[in-house]
Amino acid sequence: MAIDQKNIVFDLGGILLDIHPQRTFEAFAALGADRAVLSEAYTLSNSTMMGYEMGLISTEELYSFITALLPERTKEMPADELQARIRDAWRALIGELPLYKWQRLTRLRKQGHKLFLLSNTNALHWEQIAHNIEQIEGKRVEEYFDRVFLSYEMHRCKPDKDIFVQMLQEGGLQACDTLFFDDSADNCAAARSVGIDAVLVERNSKWGDILLKD
Question: Which of 57, 79, 120, 162 registers the highest number of CB atoms within 10 A of its CB?
């Protein structure tokens, strides 16, 4: 796929980073949480969890919320151990970072494109993800992009179109010269609503012609 736009914006989870939400739900189920409650649909509609994605509640408040969903036998763990178990379960969805995708980012920048990251994420996930990215080639995440935009720092989440407006304004980007890759049809629609061209990519898919051909 030939890319004519100067600016390329990437989602993170499902695009550059493989994600496995079911692993998190299984980890919480192992702690005694109801599988029917801790589902992807529940997470996306829950005000506390989405508030955490937008940086509106603290990590400690998230821990308290999840603890309340657990059975009494689990709550009896020492506080530090329980918090560590919750943190590990929350991060269990973080998967692989395919090397060739990150090498492709470097090549796109050398070709003159400006690259941006726009991700719905939170403090606990981002801390681990940033560490994992640095293990790929010894480069910090900021070395792959001209600017990184994170929902919990912007206090907005996709598919709110205002997050795209804020990105355009803060990044000094022209919507007509910007291309966006995401694994959510709703996010792509929101990007298009403000004039950004968007490409829907299947979650965790291997990049083929869509991003590997010049």
Answer: 120
d(Cα 123, Cα 188) in Å, to the nearest integer?
A: 24
Torsion of CA 87, 93, 98, 99, to 10 degrees: 0
Environment class of 159 (CB within 10 Å of its CB; exposed 0-12, middle 13-18, buried 19+) = middle
b or e along 7-33 (b: 16 or more beta carbons within 10 Å of the residue's beta carbon)?
bbbbbbbbbbbbbbbeebbebbbebeb
Domains of the chain by residue range = 7-18+96-212, 21-91
Q: What number is the average pLDDT over the span 29-40?
A: 80
Q: The tokens of 97 are what?
A: 């970072």
Closest C-alpha to 194, from 180, 181, 179, 175 = 175
DSSP string, 113-182: -EEEEEE---HHHHHHHHHHHHHHHS--GGGT-SEEEEHHHHT--TT-HHHHHHHHHHHT--GGGEEEEE
3-state secondary structure of 23: helix
Instruction: Measure the CA–CA gap between 94 and 125, rounded to whole angstroms.
Output: 8
What's CA 47's distance to the chain center, in Å?
18
pTM of the model: 0.94
- Total residue length of the chain: 214
Fold for domain 7-18+96-212? Rossmann fold (3.40.50)
Distance CA 62, CA 56 (A): 11
Taking only the tens place, the pLDDT of each residue in 162-210 is 999 999 999 999 999 999 999 999 999 999 999 999 999 999 999 877 7
